[in-house]
Each structure stands twice: as C-alpha cells, then as structure tokens.
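Re: zinc ion structure - here you go.
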Amino acid sequence: MDIRRLIERAREHPIRRSKDTGRTLAAGQQPTALFITCADSRIVPAAITGAEPGSLFELRTAGNVIPEYRPDECSSEMATIEFAVVGLRVPEIIVCGHSHCGAVSALHGAALDHLPTMRGWLSRHHRLPEAITSIDPALRAEGQQHLLNQLRALETYPFIQDRVRAGELRVHGWFYDIETGDVLTPAAATAFGPL
Ligand SMILES: [Zn+2]
C-alpha cells in the first residue's frame, strides 16, 4: 500500500468515526484481551479477530518474544504485560505466534550479522543455533514450538499466576498461518489449562 493512501486514510479517519464512539473511547478502556504477537506487518489483529477499538490491548515484539519475569529488571514488554494484567485487569491473554516468522527463522540459523540488536534481543531470551539447519520455509512446527516457549515465559509472572488461579484470567495460545489465514489453537498451547 502506498504511503499517500495511508495518509489519506488517516485524514479521513475522524470524519468516518462517530462522535459517540470518540466520547466512549475517551472515557477509558476496558479491553477484552491483552493480545501479544509479532511486529510482522502481515498480522493485523483487528482484521483477524474483528475487534473494535478498545477491545485489544496490544503488545507487539520482534518474534512475539516474551521475556521471563525479572522483578529487578524493567522492560517495555514486562511493563505492558503488568499494566494490562494488574492495571486494566484484562480477563484474557492471547499470545499469537505465526508461520513464516523472521525471528523464528533466525532462531533456527538464519544469519543475523547485519542485525546486531535483533541478535542481542533473541539471544537474550533463547539459545541461538551455531549453524544453519535445513527447515520448512513456512516454519509452522518451529513457530508453534516457539509459541509454547512464550506461554511458558508468561507462567513466570506471579501476578498472572495469581489471577489464573483465582479464575479471573485465561491464557490462550494461537497460531496464525500467514498463507492460509487459519488461526490454530495448538493442543499443547494450553499452558494454563483449557482455553
Ligand atoms: Zn514474526
């Protein structure tokens, strides 16, 4: 999509939206879910779910990587999760992995020499392979395993565990197939019990 079209749409946006919608949104937010996914441009959470403004509190990271909980460290990711779970008290968390993921590719050997920050980010949370391995270009199996690893990372957050145990919060693992548009819920992605 051309940048000029993006600018035109942004200018038209206030005209297309009703005043009532604006007043409702300005009054505050009570999102249905914290939606954690990759920064990949091919994933549009509102298009996948049909979510209206105010429904999804989004956290997008390179490779939908979720750092383990470390109370002595601050990160944008941990702060966003804390705000959604403790501050906004969202009742659902959706972690959405995807096929054809560049970060998952890097975790399986794709070269990152020209992306030192990405390499540092991924190696901080995962052990990077020494050599390139032969893999399916869609990376479906690898991406689903990667999703499970992120769900395990969420289990290290004490305030998430507390609210899950209290029956106030559910955690869902989704896997979005870029090619088919399917949204899968891998059976093993029930880190906190049935979805
Ligand atoms: Zn990705």
